[in-house]
Design brief:
single chain, 471 residues, alpha/beta, five-stranded parallel β-sheet, 19 strands
Length: 471
């Protein structure tokens, strides 16, 4: 009898022995966590001298500003580091229902408060980063080194595959060395030189999409008095075309409030106390002004500018440099007032971990395709919010006007319908897809609520006022 033919065995995926991560921010640390499951050794290279305790650092200029860990980001970090949220809360972070324990002002309308089950965490960026770094540093096969600068990748003679990186310690007289690696992940942030490196190696630069946001924001911290805000943990004012001003107040560690004031397209928050108070008084609700009037300042105001959101389309490249990935803000950076950066970075790390578990072959093409899908939602939300402003520079689609008119009515309706409010916040926190806002039942709710709202400008105490001239 003839022997039964057996299928040829599937070759084992090529294992990665040593991975290098450029940057020890949230994106780099979460990527290192993902790599640690399948790589024999992971080295994270950081330009800064990393502090031993939570502290702002030069390499993360936004670290002194207000940060919030969105509900989806909280779940992602707890998936990467089981027990992380309990540790963060134990370190002093606030934990609150994003609809039940907060005020949200959309187009000047106060979202109807109700328990939502959407839990967000208030903590400074240094605390979040410190907690993540401690968990990554404890991994037996991960090493965080620096301060050192990565000068570029080293490749095979045909420039098709990465074999390491050129590194120079940030010390006087330090010499350049080569660190061998078969996988390099660039998580160096918005200043990433990856497009230039690829071009130098004969590869194409990725195309980029840019949306000018022209954001200026000022952050200051105050001692938290539980009597303020009626005990609520936060409040947020989202800018809109009639009032390109916004802000937020958020409870964080050390019993303090972080307050941020934002402006777009020529509106710029002042940094003196009287000016900040006048600016807060021009917002649709009293929350931020209440804190500024009554709370004790704990530090000096800090200002930052963010010109534009940028998305690099590595997924569109016809040819990839094998063994070279880009993640975090180096892949896609968003208007920071939407608070999506840490969440998007953690989601990309989860994508990377899943792909590595399937095998290392053709990793760049697979990763950039999957990472592109992961950033689609935050990019749609951030770019769509910015493009509501006529001054914003970016590509608009043929149905954007119709969609914007519907969402304007939706925001007003959310002030009287808690279900609409919950869905809007679930989308903003990246727990539900944006398409959920257009579900037939929600469209019907928006139409039914039309007679109970005051139009696209707020009613009564929620009506937005004309901006006051700050001193």
């Amino acid at each position: 009898m003839a022997a039964t033919a057996r299928p040829a065995p599937t070759p084992e995926p090529t294992a990665r022995k040593h991975a290098v991560v450029i940057g020890a921010g949230v994106a780099g640390l979460t990527a290192a966590r993902a790599l640690g499951d399948t790589c024999e050794r992971v080295t994270v290279i950081e330009r800064d001298t990393l502090p031993d305790a939570p502290a702002a650092r030069r390499g993360v200029p936004q670290s002194r500003h207000l940060h919030v860990l969105l509900a989806r980001g909280a779940l992602a970090l707890d998936e990467l580091f089981p027990g992380f949220l309990d540790e963060l809360t134990a370190a002093g972070a606030s934990r609150a229902d994003t609809q039940g324990d907060a005020h949200w002002y959309l187009d000047g309308h106060l979202v109807c408060r109700a328990p939502s089950g959407l839990i967000a965490y208030g903590a400074s960026r240094p605390l979040v980063e410190h907690q993540i770094r401690a968990r990554v540093a404890a991994l037996p096969n991960v090493e965080i080194v620096g301060p050192a600068e990565v000068l570029g990748p080293v490749t095979t003679p045909d420039r098709g595959r990465v074999t390491g990186v050129r590194v120079r310690p940030r010390a006087d007289g330090a010499e350049e060395t080569v660190l061998d690696a078969d996988l390099v992940v660039d998580a160096s942030g918005r200043g990433s030189r990856a497009p230039a490196w690829l071009e130098e190696l004969g590869h194409a630069r990725p195309a980029s999409t840019r949306v000018r946001a022209d954001v200026v924001y000022v952050t200051r911290r105050f001692r938290r008095d539980p009597r303020l805000l009626d005990g609520r943990a936060s409040a947020a004012f989202v800018p809109f075309p009639r009032l390109p001003r916004g802000g937020a107040v958020l409870a964080e560690e050390h019993d303090r409030f972080a307050v941020v004031l934002t402006g777009q397209f020529g509106e710029e928050p002042p940094t003196d106390h009287a000016g900040m108070l006048a600016y807060a008084d021009s917002l649709p609700g009293p929350d931020i002004a209440e804190v500024l009037r009554a709370a004790e300042p704990l530090d000096a105001p800090v200002k930052m500018r963010y010109p534009a959101g940028v998305r690099h389309h590595y997924e569109r490249l016809d040819r990839h440099l094998d063994g070279f990935l880009v993640t975090g803000d180096a892949l896609c950076s968003f208007n920071p007032t939407y608070g999506q950066g840490m969440t998007a970075a953690a989601q990309q790390a989860i994508v990377l971990r899943g792909l590595l578990a399937e095998g290392a072959d053709d990793l760049p093409r697979r990763f950039f395709r999957a990472a592109s899908q992961a950033v689609d939602t935050p990019w749609l939300l951030a770019a769509g919010g910015d493009l509501r402003f006529p001054e914003a520079e970016g590509r608009r689609g043929p149905v954007d006007g119709l969609l914007d008119r519907y969402l304007t009515r939706y925001r007003a309706a959310a002030s009287v319908d808690p279900v609409l409010g919950r869905t809007f916040l679930a989308v903003a926190h990246m727990v539900e897809p944006p398409a959920r806002l257009m579900a037939p039942g929600h469209v019907l709710r928006v139409l039914r609520a039309a007679g109970r709202t005051g139009g696209a400008g707020g009613t009564g105490a929620n009506r937005p006022r004309a901006p006051k001239a700050a001193p």
